[in-house]
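In this supplementary section we document a worked example of the pipeline. Step one takes a protein sequence of length 457 as its only input; no multiple sequence alignment statistics are reported here. Step two produces a three-dimensional model, which step three serialises into structure tokens for compact storage. The input and output of this example are shown verbatim.
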Amino acid sequence: MRMQSGINTQRPRVVIVGGGFAGLQAAMHLAGKPVDVMLIDRRNHHTFQPLLYQVALAALSPGDIAQPIRSLFRNQPNVDVLMDEVVGIDVATKSVHLHSSADMQYDYLILATGSTHSYFGHDEWAPFAPGLKTVEDAIEIRRRVLLAFELAERQALEHGSHPPLNFVIVGGGPTGVELAGAISDISRLYMREDFRHIDPSKAHVIVMEGAPRILATYPEDLSREATEELTHLGVEVWTNANVTDIQPGYVVANGERVESVVTLWAAGVQASPLGRMLGAEMDKRGAIVVDEYLNPAGHRDIFVCGDLAHVLENGRRIPGVAQPAMQMGVHAAREILEDLAAEPRTKFHYFDKGDMATIGRHRAVADVKWPFHAHLGGLPAWMAWLTIHIYFLIGFRNRAIVLLQWIWMYFALSVGPRLITGSQKLPGWGQLTGTEPPPDGKHLDPNSPGVVETPAH
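The serialised model returned by step three reads:
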């Protein structure tokens, strides 16, 4: 079955795969132009990923940082939105094959499907150490973190004690640092009055980073300041930590077994598997190697953007974060419009405005490169972080709600609804409490006897 998009089939058809930062920016810059655009994504919403960790720790609700893609283009008749999944690409016939069995023809193809978690060959760790890439991931992390406190309260009530509330985060990049600071905040500030039999503030957060320092891509002074800020919050930072095993209830690093009531993964990513369908050159992460115009070798009609693209500039790979992804999406759209206007193409140049990471309540670090050069820390960096993230949120409603929620959190020391939905199972709880024998095998299924489910009351 072949699917046609748009009304005027004589106009060039641009198929965009992926509704993340790059894909969305490309579609927005092609809206209202003399092309027919089809934006395809497996989900019906765009997620503002830099704030996913706040959903994971119940500071925000999923709807606060996500926007239905279709609603963003309701007034753009040349942009169609399709909720489907690309399962194949045929460059010879210039078509993409969809999970629904349809084929979508294209004149130009923009691939921007992002990245996913990489467990460095240990995919069996995934059930015990979820990563943070989607709204579903955030909800799962929130469930586990909040459930750990609830189970500890029940254990203390019934037996007078509970296992140590150790939260282990594998990876000391921005996501790991932000998760560590947020867990420390909710345990020390936002839940301290909610329990009768446990003291949430005694929860212990450990960040395990394999490199010599956390935030390894940041300047050394900011990395050092981030370590000091985390230490001030009671977070234990392990560097040069070689994690060799993750099982229900514990992590093994540098030969030492560390009990963990909740383990989170923030250590590595790999490009979306869509890159393999193209048959182009890829790097070791599965990202597609592209030239200075964002084209794979021999494919001027295909653009690769965001985390899926391996782009070199001045001998260094452009990082796979939101800022360059947005710029790539805009550039791909401009290249297409330059072709239509019979103008020469321009090379992509990444305008690096800097990087920042928040480390809990009124703490952050920022490597500012525009409009001035500065290394900021503490409250000034936190205020800059708040301002920039509010600005880039899509939709006035989202900005207003998030701003009001942050103001309420800051002054009332209260976060959003801490709802635990779905399963009440927590990997390893049975071993930590001694109510279940250790698992026999290395690869324990999360539904096996090694995972305890709380009874319904």
